[in-house]
Amino acid sequence: MNSKELVRRAIEFDYPERIPLRYCTNIEKGDLVILPTPEHPDFSPGDPGLDEWGCLWKKMGEDIGQVIQYPISCIEDLSKYKLPILDIEKRFKEIKEKISLTQNRFVVGDMQTSGFNRMTFLRGFDSLLCDIYTDRELFNKIGDIVFFVEEELIKGWHYAGASGIIFKDDWGTQENLIVSPKMWKELFMPRYKKQVDLIHRLGMKAMFHSCGKVNAIIGPIVEIGFDVFNSNQIELLGMQEIADEYTGKTCFLLPVDIQRTLMEGSIEDVRNMAIRLAKTFGSSVGGFIGVPELGSHEIAVAGADKMKAAEEGFLSVKY
After folding, report:
1. I need a labelling partner for 233 at 20 to 30 A (CA). Which of 137, 178, 191, 294 fits?
2. Residue 1's pLDDT is what?
3. Starting from the edge strand earliest in sequence, which strands make up the sheet with 251-255, in order?
4. Could you report the per-residue pLDDT of 250-276, keeping only the tens digit for each?
5. For the chain, what percentages of helix, strand and coil (3-state, to nearest 5) are there?
6. Residue 55's CB: how many other CB atoms inside 10 A?
7. For the chain, what is the largest distance between any 2 Cα atoms, rounded to a whole number of angstroms?
8. What 8-state DSSP symbol labels residue 77?
9. Three-class SS of residue 313?
10. Which residues contact 311 (CB under 8 A, 6 or more apart)?
11. What's the rounded Cα separation, in Å, for the pair 208 and 196?
């Protein structure tokens, strides 16, 4: 059973022979490989820090940085706003060739900061939230732009040969959702549903990442049809609460919690937590993919020994 089949079986609850793994840094080591959406080769930023969407970024160390100039300040800006260059075949040419060489792995296209997060980059976080109440027309038009482009990129990933798509849309603070669950369902659930339906029609799997305290929308995320849910803060959500409610209903893609055990625990704590995650969310029928190794920042802060311990913990579980 190769890696691609292993991941598919875990997602579909079809008895994988072991727990599949995803590595964030040494990606070729993993069964599941997540690749970033490629920038169009014809894009020329003009200003340093300008991205394809017209957002001007200021980099802060190794972090993503923040947008310091938003391309849409009022509804009049929409008429002159330039979409990212799509031209799917040209954009995905190189990544298509790369995927063709990794047919034995489950390759997932990373939409990166997507959906709501991308809307805030275009308009500004505070302004966008105010628009919900003061200028719903502008809010909806910005949403139309973002979700249209993303749907075209989904088609691009299908053209390239990806097996799945992952959205990264952080919806939670440390205490709750950024908006009410009712508002989330009204404004975003239909948009996500349209994307998931497209992904499934194209024969791919749909995955959703969100950090923060997002318990209130995990149910709707599963209802929409997302095949995989990913959080880096599973202890914040309440492991057993989430497992009791959703195990068997969606597949979980999880590392050892990056805020708590990974940072504060011992090497043995990390190993034990990896075992606990695999046993809590997975079973012999599947439903779990482990993430033993995170990004370079987490490795630098937590230490490579803890990543190794997580790997050992995941691999030690035999259902």
Report:
1. 191
2. 87
3. 21-23, 288-293, 251-255, 228-230, 205-209, 164-168, 106-113, 32-36
4. 999 999 999 999 999 999 999 999 999
5. 50, 15, 35
6. 20
7. 59
8. G
9. helix
10. 21, 274, 292, 293
11. 10
Structure-token pair, residue 125:
């976080």
Distance between CA 6 and CA 60 in Å, rounded?
38
Other beta carbons within 10 angstroms of residue 139's beta carbon come to: 20
How high is the pLDDT of residue 299?
80
Tokens 């599947």, located at residue: 286
Residue in the structure block whose two tokens are 């190189």: 94
Mean per-residue pLDDT for 89-110?
Answer: 94
Q: Which CATH number fits domain 31-40+84-230: 3.30.230.10, 3.40.50.150, 3.90.1200.10, 3.20.20.210?
A: 3.20.20.210
CA atoms of 176 and 123, how far apart (whole Å): 23
Residues 105 and 103: their CA atoms lie apart, in Å, by: 6
Residue with tokens 């311990």: 309
Q: What span, in angstroms and rounded, lies between the C-alpha atoms of 238 and 166?
A: 23
What distance in Å separates the CA atoms of residue 259 and residue 244, rounded to the nearest whole number? 22
Domain boundaries, the chain: 1-30+247-319, 31-40+84-230
